[in-house]
Amino acid sequence: MDNESFRYWSHQAADWAADYRASIGERPVRAQMTPGAIGKLIEATPPEAPQSMESIFADFERIVPDGMTHWQHPRFFAYFQSNAAPAAVIAEQLAGVMAAQCMLWQTSPAATELEIKMVDWLRQSVGLPDEFKGVLQDTASSATLCAVLTMRERALGWSGNQQGLAGKPAVRIYASTRTHTSVDKALWIAGIGQDNLVKIPTDENFAMRVDALRAAIAADRENGLLPAGVVVCVGGTSIGATDNVQAVCETAREAGLYSHVDAAWAGSAMICPEFRRLWRGVELADSIVINPHKWLGASMECSAHFVREPQTLVKTLAIQPEYLKTHGKDGLVNFSEWSVQLGRRFRALKVWFLLRAYGLQGLRARIRNHVAWSEQLAARLASETDFEIVTAPILSLFSFRYTPSNHDTDLDALNLKLINAINDDGRIYLTQTSHDGKLVVRFVAGQFDTQESDIDIAFTTICEVARAL
Ligand SMILES: *Cc1c(COP(=O)(O)O)cnc(C)c1O
Questions:
Q1: 177 Cα to the center of ligand 1, angstroms
Q2: Rounded to two decimals, what is the model's pTM?
Q3: Ligand 1 atom 5: the closest Cα is on which residue?
Q4: If you average pLDDT over residues 199-204, what whole number do you get?
């Protein structure tokens, strides 16, 4: 492709992008597809001869958009939103064209130095003390894996990477029963094993029972096991379960354990001072992850991983063969030493564009609206006789059930049927979770462009679809 064609097709893509955004609200939110339908439209074998961009672009338009679930749709209320604010998207285009591999300072000084600054902007935005430094990981799963590896190495006196875990006392990690499965997976990958993830029961507020945590640590010590760290949950994925960060981190400190706060979703809301009560005591943590690629708008992949002592993380993850050394420059930050992956994208650019284009005021206003609208919707549903709120809003997430009085059959089956019918309807998109053994409908507001009228449509759709079942 010559440069004039590149310019032309870049413009075509930009036009397509703006048209897509302008009409996204008219699309069904969740892809209305049967499995395999898209695959059938794709050639079975790669082309030998080059094909024209006209044909490639036409096939893209013909095949792909209708096969997408539209995450930037203003009536996306499922999972947790994965926002790509327009300013962040533009930054991604620029980062994509420079396509730097930002593993070391010298492989792209601007990427490294902007990342240092943007992590610090994010730190200030969520009100963390300035001793926290950090890195932009790809995902919260990676940040949590890095934290778990740090817990392991710190507890083993940095012998695990060298010697492996055979013959060593079992490393024990503690987390509530409501933490994300990325914690389980981190233990699998770290070689610690599922059986050494000690799941601590939660109290009536869905928070980890600190007395049970203390007892579990003491019991493990007595049995010759090696307590290493605690993962603290703030805004859990299912229903927003949140631990008492202060109490858990204090307990971890007293026991000499490393603490990691998983606030992947809720962390973005901490740009609003009034929501920081949710993670009160967070300054006691050793490691914290928030996902600006969820609620804030930074577009995948962008997880801010803050650490109190970067040297502990770097000691766990840095590996320096001669070909990766940068001679003659002291005090450099090489972010590949802070993460699992070596090669890394230029993630900081979209954070810079995002924070500047909307300002903290603009981002706070969105989050405050989402929380207020979600509370209003929960109240509206609660006042309908055939709906029941199962878990009250935690920030903008709540769960509910359809419980018509004339329905004597299985309410789980009925609610699953409701979710499927709502998503087939296409006006909104919701997902389910299991809570206290019941299947419940999750509602979370948080899409970047959601308006109050979209919440009204959600209310109407939920009621209409349920009563037509
Ligand atoms: C979304 C989420 C994760 C996983 O985030 P990824 O960035 O997709 O790895 C982990 N923990 C919580 C609480 C989450 O909400």
A1: 15
A2: 0.96
A3: 140
A4: 97
